């Protein structure tokens, strides 16, 4: 079970494993957890919850997740993908590690590819119960993450200064980009990640192509919806200037 607008890899992996993806529409750009719980059947094995969600940037609260978990039967594992966890500002964000300590059927996924800036090393981690971990260990590929990636990840975990600085830069940039888009007449969806999701009311693919010709990459999701990643101040300024020019030419 997964949302209709969420990280595309979930559906790809389910297909690769010859499983069936059950798609539940978002509700006001957020995971509709009651509807996801309603979709569970005797055949369900996994439920994917990307929080904050990619590409919308929205999150679900601790209370909402708790209500979901209360409805999830023992034969279903809930995968909590928290790739953008470090960017979250809301105090209502779930304490997913507590679910693991309580022995819930959850797998919490984190990555070093986002706020830590180690995307090229392709390393992340999962936290779950001993029972689930032992099962996954029997199925995992024979080759571990390379030693350089492991050393870099350990160093990153201790670099609180970098994380704090990156979070501050993202928060300032978020305000800059949201204001710029709002001034242009758009309404970005409030985000807890390092990107914003916005309806540009134009052919998103054409705008993507036009921006690309100007040397700026945005992500076209579908229709008129695009995702814009937050950058440094000067990068955000350049994006907004080019975007304004492209929009006015469409």
- End-to-end C-alpha gap: 38 Å
- Helix- and strand-based class? alpha/beta
Contiguous helical run count: 9
| Total count of domains | 2
Oligomer, anyone? Answer: single chain
Number of strands: 9
**Uncertain regions spanning at least 5 consecutive residues:** none
**What average pLDDT do the residues reach?**
97
Offer a concise description of the structure.
The protein has 250 residues and is α/β, with parallel strands linked by helices.
Give a structural overview.
- The chain is of the alpha/beta class and 250 residues long.
- The protein folds into two domains: 2-157, Aspartate Aminotransferase, domain 2 (3-Layer(aba) Sandwich); 161-249, Aspartate Aminotransferase, domain 1 (Alpha-Beta Complex), CATH 3.90.1150.10.
- 41% of the residues lie in helices and 16% in strands.
- It is built from nine helices and nine strands.
- It has helices at 9-16, 33-38, 62-71, 96-101, 130-139, 147-157, 160-183, 204-213, 233-249; strands at residues 2-3, 23-24, 46-50, 77-81, 106-111, 124-128, 195-199, 219-222, 225-229.
- The strands form three sheets. A four-stranded mixed β-sheet has the order 3-4-5-6.
- Helix 7 (160-183) packs parallel to helix 9 (233-249).
- The chain is globular and about 55 Å long.
- The relative contact order is 0.10.
How would you summarize the topology of this molecule?
Blueprint: E1 2-3, H1 9-16, E2 23-24, H2 33-38, E3 46-50, H3 62-71, E4 77-81, H4 96-101, E5 106-111, E6 124-128, H5 130-139, H6 147-157, H7 160-183, E7 195-199, H8 204-213, E8 219-222, E9 225-229, H9 233-249
Parallel strand pairs: 1-2, 3-4, 4-5
Antiparallel strand pairs: 5-6, 7-9, 8-9
